[in-house]
Amino acid sequence: MDISAELATKIRAVKLAVFDVDGVMTDGALHYSADGEQVKIFNTLDGHGMKMLMATGVDIAIISGRQSPALARRSKDLGIMKLFMAVDDKGRVYKELLASLKLQPHQVASIGDDVVDLPILLNCAFSVAVPAAPTFVRERVDYVTEAHGGRGAVREFCEIIMAAQSTLAAALKKYLPS
User: Does the N-terminal or the C-terminal CB of the chain have fewer CB atoms within 10 Å?
Assistant: First the structure.
């Protein structure tokens, strides 16, 4: 989880974290039930990382190319209100989101795993990919997580932001005996 001092300085300005879903919040596998309903498997550690990040004042948005009742439920359970599903043009939605929040790209961190995420990843302060991302994507981001999608990558991303913003220690301290 080593990042440069220069990158840490950029991360300090982050007010919004943008997440892809398939391959990032999940392992990227698509599971279908017998009746054709898509089933997604989320990691509880990742979810708690997102909740801790939000508690520090960093807002969260999810931009997914797929429509998913499971994702809608997961977002609701985590208290994430900025959910965009069935998005064909992530760059357009991202620009509209920033405009609505009156934010600039230097105030955003993002994690993704494929070329469709590049319009966001190439236009933010801190861009992250997971190890399974294509080389074309991994070569263009600031950081590649050690953990895989659906298996701790989201938590790692959240903790890097909190560490750079000096909020991680306080977020974790409340879990220790006083």
Answer: C
